[in-house]
Amino acid sequence: MSTAEKLQPAVQIKLKVLKGPHEGQSFHLSKSSFTVGRGPENEVVLINDPQISRQHARLQVVGQDIEIINLSKKNKVMVGSEEIQKWKLINDSTFMLGDTEIQIAFEIEKLTPMTPGPQLVRTDLPAVPVGLDLNPPPAPAATPQAKKTPAMTPLQPQAPRKRPMPPPANRQQVPANRQGQVQARGPMQPGRPGPQGQMMPRPNQQMGPQFIPEMGMGAPRPATNSQANSGGGLLANPKARFYLIVGAIVLGLVYWLNMEEPKKPQSNEIKSTLKYEDEYLLKQNSVAEKELDQKRKAKLEQKMSPTNLRVEENFQKGMRDYQLGNYTRALDFFQVVLNLDASHVMARRHLYLAKIRFDEIVKAKLALGESYYQKHNFKMCKAMYQQVLIMLQGKNNDQSYQTAQSMSEKCGLAAEGIR
Where residue 7 falls among pLDDT bands split at 50, 70, 90? Predict the structure, then answer.
């Protein structure tokens, strides 16, 4: 009894963390199936990534590929930019688990048979010379045509096999002395009595299976020419077939000659004979083209007008001060632009943004002056409030202006030792 060969797979897998809390860490495994997650029960443990589930993914060998399966219901497994549930990874490809990007490199050897066990060898057989084929090719199977035929022997006359024939019902049995006369006449002819009183049929009579030495026992007798012609009908006559074919061809020609060609509908389209220059002139002189030309000219005149040039100049100055952080002057320039052109969208937008930045700076300076006052740094306190007064110059009714004015006086008196 032979022992079945056992197959042993060889797998080498390397996981390298490219990004995430475990960056630079690598794992070497030789298992055909393992799991990755934060839990200690996994073969690959990534405990520092809070976006990874306790048991996040499974990697298993399928044939010559490695398949990754998402085991988490809340967190994702990303291969490239696509979220997957099951995917076959190629060598040196990457995948994402939470915030961790992992590169996989693997080497899977094909299944190789293990070393077979000891086998019994017979020593009682005679030695075989070198080069002798112990398994000669099998002889070709014998076919009916390839069977060995016996040697040809000269033909010997054999007596014809006699069949007992029943006597005819309507004739008397021929006497024995008549048989010799019939045989002496020669071969049997149709319509004459044969041996043992049987009658040969005439050519127009149908015969059943009879014994013919060349064709074997019971072979049907071939039909005569009269029988073949009688069953074909009119098409059996070659002349009739010829006349029918000629008539069909003539009828087809007559029909084709008399058939009228379908009249094509006359098109009422008038082909244009204009040249390209003529079409261009017609288009330029059209009403629509003249209206568009007038609109272009009006826009160009409006753009080159003194008012529009002044608008563009003030807007550029306002954008320059806005980018430099001088929001007070930027507010003035944007306001001038809106006074000249109230539909200027960009000036309106930057005016709103400059106001927000200006208010933020004023509030920050007030808060800083208050902190200096609490720290008894009265000189810096007075300086901060003076800057707010300069920024809000001309806005005496503003609450921030009034606060800065009162605190500036208070910080000045405190600096002189008077409270």
Answer: low
